[in-house]
């Protein structure tokens, strides 16, 4: 008779498992329980998890012990806490590539999610001295300026603060940026010739924090990009992303 590959747990193996479990700190057992339930699909991304009071009753432990477990899972970006609303399963980190300039709308849709944008500012304004130097224009030269918030499944994931050279995209102010992204318009109006990047972690100023629906001074991933077209600098853009939701990826070769 062939021996089954599945072995019934013996009293000895069950005892070993129980001892191993008992050796774990209680807060770690609570963390493992929450992570296991999320992995099993009981609570999905964005769904609320049991309150600390419910976990206190379930495990028969102190509020301090439960709070430590929840606090550590929040720091590890497994959970996210909203003041006055509860604790939720944190969204997965959204990814963007640094290798290829793509529309954020295309990236969101490629993940099977819904994209929308909210226009906060669209104007013609004089260039500051630093901006004028970046565009190689005279100080106070007129530029186009837009500030747009991009959403993924109604979660704000990017504030796009963009300055545009009117010589490269004269119709920029006429665009409906609810139906087309600035990147999509510029790629058509001013074919890309080159780009330079920098990326850093910065605390969110109050206005950026409000648009991203995060606390002021929350750490953000900030991508600054300068693109050129037709032998001119076409666009200077700063893109703010909530650090706990976003990561940049890329490969060469």
From TrEMBL:
<dbReference type="Pfam" id="PF00392">
    <property type="entry name" value="GntR"/>
</dbReference>
<dbReference type="InterPro" id="IPR050679">
    <property type="entry name" value="Bact_HTH_transcr_reg"/>
</dbReference>
<protein>
    <recommendedName>
        <fullName>Histidine utilization repressor</fullName>
    </recommendedName>
</protein>
<dbReference type="InterPro" id="IPR028978">
    <property type="entry name" value="Chorismate_lyase_/UTRA_dom_sf"/>
</dbReference>
<dbReference type="InterPro" id="IPR011663">
    <property type="entry name" value="UTRA"/>
</dbReference>
<dbReference type="InterPro" id="IPR000524">
    <property type="entry name" value="Tscrpt_reg_HTH_GntR"/>
</dbReference>
<dbReference type="Pfam" id="PF07702">
    <property type="entry name" value="UTRA"/>
</dbReference>
<keyword id="KW-0804">Transcription</keyword>
<dbReference type="GO" id="GO:0003700">
    <property type="term" value="F:DNA-binding transcription factor activity"/>
</dbReference>
<dbReference type="InterPro" id="IPR010248">
    <property type="entry name" value="His_ut_repres"/>
</dbReference>
<dbReference type="GO" id="GO:0006547">
    <property type="term" value="P:L-histidine metabolic process"/>
</dbReference>
<keyword id="KW-0238">DNA-binding</keyword>
<dbReference type="GO" id="GO:0003677">
    <property type="term" value="F:DNA binding"/>
</dbReference>
<dbReference type="GO" id="GO:0045892">
    <property type="term" value="P:negative regulation of DNA-templated transcription"/>
</dbReference>
<dbReference type="InterPro" id="IPR036388">
    <property type="entry name" value="WH-like_DNA-bd_sf"/>
</dbReference>
<feature type="domain" description="HTH gntR-type">
    <location>
        <begin position="24"/>
        <end position="92"/>
    </location>
</feature>
<keyword id="KW-0805">Transcription regulation</keyword>
<dbReference type="InterPro" id="IPR036390">
    <property type="entry name" value="WH_DNA-bd_sf"/>
</dbReference>
């Amino acid at each position: 008779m062939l021996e089954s590959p599945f072995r019934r747990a013996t009293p000895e193996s069950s005892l070993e498992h129980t001892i191993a479990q008992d050796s774990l700190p209680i807060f770690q057992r609570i963390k493992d329980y929450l992570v296991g339930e999320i992995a099993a699909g009981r609570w999905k991304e964005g769904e609320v998890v049991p309150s600390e009071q419910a976990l206190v009753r379930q495990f028969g432990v102190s509020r301090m012990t439960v709070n430590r477990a929840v606090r550590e899972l929040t720091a590890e970006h497994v959970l996210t806490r909203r003041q006055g609303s509860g604790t939720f399963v944190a969204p997965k980190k959204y990814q963007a590539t640094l290798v290829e300039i793509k529309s954020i709308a295309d990236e969101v849709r490629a993940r099977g999610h819904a994209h929308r944008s909210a226009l906060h500012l669209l104007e013609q304004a004089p260039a500051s001295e630093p901006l004028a130097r970046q565009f190689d224009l005279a100080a106070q030269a007129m530029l186009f300026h837009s500030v747009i918030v991009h959403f993924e499944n109604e979660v704000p994931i990017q504030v796009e603060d963009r300055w545009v050279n009117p010589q490269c995209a004269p119709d920029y102010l006429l665009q409906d940026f609810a139906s087309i992204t600035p990147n999509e318009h510029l790629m058509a109006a001013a074919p890309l010739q080159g780009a330079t990047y920098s990326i850093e972690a910065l605390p969110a100023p109050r206005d950026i924090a409000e648009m991203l629906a995060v606390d002021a001074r929350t750490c953000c991933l900030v991508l600054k990009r300068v693109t050129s077209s037709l032998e001119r600098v076409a666009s200077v853009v700063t893109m703010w992303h909530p650090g706990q939701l976003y990561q940049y990826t890329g490969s060469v070769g």
